Amino acid sequence: MVGRSSLSARSPTPENDHRPLPNQNDESLKHAPKAAATAQQARRQLCHSKGLEIKVPSAGSPSPTTAFIHTPQNYHREQAEGREKTAAILVPGNEGGVLGPSSIYLSIADKLASLNRGIPVLRLDHRFPARTKYCVADVLAAMNYLQNGYAVGRFVLVGWGFGGATVFTAAGQDSRIVGCATIASQSDEADGIEDMARRALPVLLIHGTEDSILTADCSRRLSERYRNASRGGEGEMAIFEGDDHQLSQKALKAEEVLCDFIMRLAGEEVGDEERTQWLQAQLRDVTN
């Protein structure tokens, strides 16, 4: 199978007008469809989720992008003071959005923020998708927002498709990023992965073998680049046989692998019961 290596926009300059962003008050975008019922069954408190507007510095006046933040119900800034807190930022693909492949971003955010020792998660949209310069600016603005408002000093980034270029480029620019995971990443505009390797920062690459948009060879090339530049870092690759760009066949397994990666970097552990009742639960509607 011969596929593309990039989903980046051909023109690096965005149009004058911003694309329509999600409604930050849309209740359907705040939690996974089955999260509340599953939380009740597992006898746990579902995390708090809200939409917000993040101002991104730009020439002239700042321009906003939309995001949804998931925080533990008992999370307060003063509780995080004195202990370096880690958050995850989930970055979209070339079309933007806040759901991720097969809507797993909703599930991951609910799961991690609802753990007994929850991890804040921000699902980020982009003002100008598929343009690395602007998407990286969105990520850095989101990091500053979380640092200033939630006392977060360490970040794990997750990117889908084009989002791989975004997270690796951001990691090459900002030392607050302690690891990156990608789903079906492109291999172009991803030089930051080599910088991560030289700094021994962990990387997780997930890809389906039947991805007809960005083939699994993209992640294999990224893995080789990381390995060649590595100075002792952990470079992991998870190849999902028979799966596509959306990971529609093994989305639940992808959620589990990504949650484990983020929890490990955040220094959080869960017991067997919490894993079975919550992390392995299907919070999304299955449509295929």
TrEMBL record:
Instruction: Cite the Pfam families for this sequence.
Output: Abhydrolase_1
Question: What are the alphabetically sorted keywords of the record?
Answer: Hydrolase
Coiled-coil residues = none
Q: Where is the composition biased (Polar residues)?
A: 1-14
Q: Name one GO molecular function term.
A: hydrolase activity, acting on ester bonds
Which InterPro entries does this entry report, sorted A to Z? AB_hydrolase_1, AB_hydrolase_fold, FrsA_esterase
Family annotation (Gene3D superfamilies): alpha/beta hydrolase
All residue ranges annotated as the AB hydrolase-1 domain in the record: 108-201
Q: Where is this region: Disordered?
A: 1-42
Query: What's the family?
Result: Belongs to the AB hydrolase superfamily. FUS2 hydrolase family.
Q: What name does UniProt use for this protein?
A: AB hydrolase-1 domain-containing protein
